[in-house]
């Protein structure tokens, strides 16, 4: 057996291939889809947020609790390293007002083309429409356009993705080949099902602006959307982990006003005005925020101010797993060494979203995939050359 095999041509797999090829190892990358990097390209449709330019400790804290190997990977290949890497591929970057880092062209395809050219120059071979079907007497079995194939290599890196966006290749089907090593997948960065009343129908598709969302210790001032299926958008995604785990989701309809100011405004004389008109006038609530207050706040309490500052959002749980931007769960770290090798399969390393970690939106997911791909690729190269 010679060379290395990478299964999965997303950012983690391609980074592992790059590291191994740079050390003179012959690398084959196999992917089940007709073309590589499909979820990566989809991320590029919203600008390709590569990372978050912020102090490393702040960056790490955004992930919440992380296993030690993930912390080590992100320390070794954090925001500044990702930016240097992308610029090394000839991709100018800019940093937005919130610290999010994007290619200047605001899409993924130029970066992916440059990356694939680098890999080709390093001798990396790509095999598309190769779907992994498990192990076969020390080799790895694939269904391919030319029929079943078995590949045997010195080292293998599995970078098989999570379980959302199956149409882009991340369907989680690999779990059947590692059934005892996986924490069940759960949606991450997702919307929530809301069974809207009829009076909300005219607002479907409308953005909810100038509000804040809170769930547990998570807080967001991002915009969200009233969709036909519920509530979604960046503001919801930012607090979705806490909501998924059981914390109440609340909406602050006047986040720039302290409670006392809201209460004082409500105490102004109402005269003959309806309550809705009074709220519109003294609190400057637009029709959508008034509708949300009616949807979730009735029957109104005598003291309406606390409700306006923390309106509980009733929901039926997360949207389906396949609709989530990313997933939690995956291959457990207790099944891996510190350099991401499977303990019961020497020479097989793992990287990317298939591992049991999760990231908020804002560049953290792609950075984590690149960082773990780098660890797995470096360790696999060392393992291959030490044999």
Give an overview in words:
Helices cover 32% and strands 21% of the residues. The radius of gyration is 24 Å and the shape is elongated. The mean pLDDT is 95. It is built from 13 helices and 21 strands. The strands form 6 sheets. It has a 5-stranded parallel beta sheet, with helices on one face. A 4-stranded antiparallel beta sheet has the order 12-17-16-13. Strands 15-14-18-19 form a 4-stranded antiparallel beta sheet.
List the SSEs and their pairings:
Elements: E1 4-7, H1 11-22, E2 27-31, H2 38-44, E3 51-52, H3 56-61, H4 68-76, H5 79-88, E4 93-95, E5 100-103, H6 109-121, E6 125-128, E7 131-136, E8 139-143, E9 149-151, E10 155-158, E11 182-188, E12 192-193, E13 207-208, E14 212-215, E15 218-220, E16 224-227, E17 230-232, H7 234-237, H8 240-244, E18 249-252, H9 259-266, H10 275-283, H11 287-297, H12 305-309, E19 311-312, E20 326-331, E21 348-350, H13 364-386
Parallel strand pairs: 1-2, 1-10, 2-6, 10-21
Antiparallel strand pairs: 3-5, 4-5, 7-8, 8-9, 11-20, 12-17, 13-16, 14-15, 14-18, 16-17, 18-19
Helix pairs in contact: 1-6, 1-13, 4-13
Describe, in short, the structure shown.
The chain has 387 residues and is an alpha+beta fold. The chain is built from 13 helices and 21 strands.
Features:
387 residues; alpha+beta; 5-stranded parallel sheet; 13 helices; elongated
Main sheet record: 5 strands, parallel
- Rounded to an integer in angstroms, the radius of gyration calculated over CA atoms is 24 Å
Overall pLDDT? 95
Shape, per Cα inertia axes = elongated
Global structural class: alpha+beta
N-to-C span: 11 Å
- The low-confidence parts are none
Number of helices: 13
Question: How many E strands?
Answer: 21
Beta-strand percentage? 15-25%
Helical percentage: 25-40%
């Amino acid at each position: 057996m010679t060379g290395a095999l990478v299964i999965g041509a997303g950012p983690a797999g391609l980074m592992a291939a790059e590291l191994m090829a740079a050390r003179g190892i012959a690398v084959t990358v196999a992917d089940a889809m007709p073309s590589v990097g499909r979820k990566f390209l989809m991320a590029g449709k919203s600008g390709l947020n590569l990372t978050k330019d912020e102090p490393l400790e702040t960056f790490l804290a955004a992930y919440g609790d992380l296993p030690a190997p993930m912390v080590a990977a992100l320390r070794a290949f954090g925001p500044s390293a990702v930016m240097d890497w992308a610029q090394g591929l000839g991709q100018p970057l800019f940093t937005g007002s919130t610290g999010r880092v994007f290619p200047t062209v605001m899409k993924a395809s130029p970066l992916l083309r440059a990356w694939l050219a680098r890999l080709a120059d390093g001798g990396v071979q790509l095999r598309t429409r190769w779907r992994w079907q498990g192990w076969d007497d020390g080799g790895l079995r694939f269904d391919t356009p030319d029929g079943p194939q078995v590949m045997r290599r010195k080292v293998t890196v599995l970078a098989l993705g999570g379980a959302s966006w199956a149409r882009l290749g991340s369907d989680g089907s690999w779990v059947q080949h590692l059934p005892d090593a996986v924490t069940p997948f759960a949606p991450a960065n997702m919307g929530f099902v809301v069974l809207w009343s009829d009076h909300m129908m005219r607002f479907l598709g409308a953005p909810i602006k100038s509000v804040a969302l809170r769930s547990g210790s998570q807080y967001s001032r991002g915009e969200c959307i009233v969709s036909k299926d519920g509530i979604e958008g960046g503001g919801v995604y930012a607090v979705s982990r806490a909501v998924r785990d059981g914390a109440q989701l609340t909406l602050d309809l006047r986040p720039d006003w302290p409670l006392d100011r809201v209460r004082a405004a409500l105490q102004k004389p109402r005269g003959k005005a309806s309550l809705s008109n009074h709220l519109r006038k003294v609190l400057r609530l637009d029709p959508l925020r008034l509708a949300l207050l009616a949807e979730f706040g009735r029957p109104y309490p005598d003291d309406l101010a606390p409700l306006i500052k923390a309106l509980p959002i009733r929901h039926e749980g997360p949207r389906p797993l396949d609709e989530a931007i990313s997933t939690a769960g995956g291959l457990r770290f207790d099944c891996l060494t510190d350099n991401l090798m499977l303990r019961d399969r020497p020479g097989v390393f793992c990287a990317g979203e298939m591992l049991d970690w999760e990231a908020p939106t804002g560049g953290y997911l792609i950075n984590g995939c690149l960082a773990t791909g780098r660890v797995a690729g470096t360790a696999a190269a060392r393992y291959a050359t030490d044999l």
